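Handoff note, outgoing to incoming analyst
You'll be picking up this chain. Sequence as last confirmed:
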Amino acid sequence: MIITDGKERSRRRGWGALVGVVLALVLGQSMAWAAQAAQGSQAAQGAREGPLAGIQPEDDSLRILTWNVHLFGKTMFGLGGTYADDQRRVEFISEELSRLARAGMDVVVLQEVWDDGMARQLIRDAGFPHGVMGADRTLRGDVERTFLGSGLVILSRYPLERVEQVAFAPTQGYDNFTSKGFVMCDVKLAGRTIGLVTTHLHAGGGEETEANRKLQIAALGEALAEREGLAGPAAMPCLIAGDFNTSRESPARHEFMLESLGTTGQPVVDAWIAAEETEPESGATAVSHNTLRRFFNDGRRSRSHSIDYCLLRADGQGRQPFVVRRASVRRFVLSDEERPFGEIAEDDGSVTPVIDLSDHLAVEVELELVAVPVLEAPTVGPLPGRLAWAREQLFTKWGSAFGIDVIAMETVSEEKLLHALHVLAQYIDNDEDGEADDKRVLAALREHGALLVMAGSDRELERLDQRQFERAGHRLIQDLYGRETHPAGSSLAKGFDATLEEVWHLVSFGWAATYPEVFGFERGSRLAQAMDLARGGYHRRMPRRYPAGAWYSYYDRTCDYRCQVAEYSYWTLITKLGGQSYAGRAREIADEWRLTTPDELQSGDPAVWSLLSDSRWRLPRVLPDGSYGD
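Most recent structure output, in case you need it:
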């Protein structure tokens, strides 16, 4: 909605005890459910619904483990301890892998098996019928410089076909003496075939560490595109697992990795984030308490990071068939009866035995391959029987997207109602794979009877009996007027398509309720903290004049602090998605918002840009255009 004066804004908020009861939850006036959500958020990493949770699986299931085992063996560097210790460790590791094979593990991918003899030993003794090694030091043709191969090994219960071994281009630092790269193959499961890739990216050393990793990620992405490009729509889905040396705790780097390894317009999915259940909460694999890691760091404790991943790549039609039932981090250590690999001298004079079999923890993921859901575009029809009460309120048209109803009066055309429905669907299922991007967000909206009501103008809504909505169980309501709905899109001539704003106000409650510490509208959430920066400081009440450096300055005394956060959520997300950058828009909104392009937002409001770009929250990445499923 284009706000032309405060009167119009006040009148809009004024049908108020309806939209006000509506926004009571959105703006934090009733926090009982949000408090429950906050408790759940503390275990957000520990119990999540996957992108296709709730779909009945086919018979196909898969357990995969990725583990950097840090085995140097007979190298000229003397790294990783003595050869004798490595030989002991490879025997223990082989025993652990044999146990996993007997327990039903399907695929294991290993990194840093630098010694070819040890790699062959693991393939022979680990209990898996199929195994391949990555590139050795001769693949790239510069054997005078490379002393080590790729260190990659794949072990599988199922046959491995179309195996490709690729070495990365030379890098810097100690990685320059290796043939790090990736192995690509097909895994022929009992019921279908999937792709599998394992890799180990640049670890560090040299001034271009981050640049080198980005080049390697890009090279892997290009190889995947080339390999599957020939198959076109028939390209199979793929698992990508290994040590990426890219921390989940660095959102920009994590997002770059997901984007670069995905199909066109659809990033890969981080299995840890998509998992219905995780253990432990953090998912860190390079951890401070690891005794072998501390031993190599002269006893020092370093920060814990999540750098080992299993990633899920969609098929050639952009469909994601993997459901992640469980993801867990596993620590493999010596038994009490075994002799440690050494000791760590502690500051208090005590010693800690070195008992970890590797300086990394392993990531295990339990998957099911499911029938891919069919994407169905919303349609418009008459009010169903369960909404008979709305007919008394002069509503005649109805549609639904993901169980969220949209009702409209006769003065609203079917074209505009359908446009609102499609925008709603695109916010919830932004990648348009037929499933909500975040099922917990959708559950929060359904829990509160989220409802979008459409009238030709605000005057029509003023005549409504607000109690009817409450009695029908709709505690979360947003209005949208036909005169501000523009299916053809925003333009200087016709104005901003308010569907983008008002539907987001409705949907954003789902994020606020599911992740209150991040997207809540109360002071102290990460979103509210970013808004305080944008307004030039914390203002409980609207100031007479905002500081000169503020880029968000909304002057409306009917809009309290929580309302200001809700509006800031709209301004920032739609700007990031490019919805404020059409010709003439900057001048229209300059009194309230002064960052109108994605580039301006990224440079002018880095706090909110980082928040909105963090793939953990599964926020929309593409601006809705009303064409869901087309």
